[in-house]
Specification:
Elements (H helix, E strand, L loop, with lengths): L1 H6 L16 H35 L5 E10 L2 E6 L5 E5 L8 E4 L4 E4 L5 E3 L3 E10 L4 E10 L9 H10 L19 H12 L12 H21 L1
Parallel strand pairs: 3-8
Antiparallel strand pairs: 1-2, 1-7, 2-3, 4-5, 5-6, 7-8
């Protein structure tokens, strides 16, 4: 609106239609203010959502729910309840059947003695132990766990690729492996004839022209000596 009014010859920062001209410095300040306000609104939304979840779970203390392990940390793992989408913590101290080590690469807890493992995606059954309204925290205790199937979430192409990768053969060429074949009768006959030839027998070679000249000269000298001797 301000630009249109300026083209029509209007002067000043404001226009009759509601336009207003801001400098670059004012625009930067307004942008920072809008970003800060948006972040505060997001934080307030999360706080209200967490408070409502804790308020609901206060009446569920002692009840059991089924869920899925959503994240794993060094101090335990968080379980997201099915249908409710509420997260709670199963602290590692409540797993008193073994000492558990956190595998950061595999995102799992591994028992040192028994080998029990808790990882992302495992289906578990938990009981609500406590709810802290001030800290917006929900504590669970583990009742049972079940390993999630491995093929869940994979496409049909990935499954087919995995099933055929372990089969031998195919069109891939095996490098370095000798191929066994059965020679025919003609090949065997030629091979046997080559073996039957005596080792001392050699093929006669035709003398070269130089050798022939030397032999002729030697023969002529011998004839001349023989003639003189007679």
């Amino acid at each position: 609106k301000y630009l249109l009014a300026k083209e029509q010859g209007h002067k000043g920062n404001s226009t009759e239609t509601g336009g207003w001209h801001y400098s670059m410095e004012e625009m930067l300040q307004l942008g920072q203010h809008c970003s800060m306000t948006e972040r505060r609104a997001d934080e307030a939304t999360r706080e209200v959502s967490d408070w409502l979840k804790c308020d609901f779970m206060q009446d569920q203390v002692g009840n059991t729910f089924s869920g899925v392990i959503a994240s794993v940390t060094g101090f335990g793992f968080f379980v997201r309840l099915n249908d409710l989408f509420i997260d709670g913590l199963v602290h590692v101290s409540s797993l008193d059947n073994d000492y558990y080590r956190f595998d950061q690469v595999g995102q799992r807890l591994i028992g040192e003695s028994g080998g029990q493992t808790y990882r992302l995606g495992d289906r578990v059954e938990v009981r609500v132990e406590a709810v802290n309204m001030d800290e917006r925290k929900i504590d669970f205790s583990l009742i049972s766990s079940e390993r999630a199937p491995r093929n869940v979430g994979k496409t049909a192409r990935e499954k087919a690729k995995k099933s055929t990768s372990g089969k031998p053969g195919g069109r891939r060429r095996q490098v370095g492996k000798q191929v066994n074949f059965e020679p025919d009768s003609a090949f065997r006959k030629e091979k046997d004839q080559a073996k039957a030839k005596p080792k001392g027998e050699k093929k006669a070679k035709k003398p070269s022209a130089k050798t022939q000249k030397i032999a002729a000269a030697t023969k002529a000298k011998r004839a001349a000596k023989k003639k003189i001797a007679e």
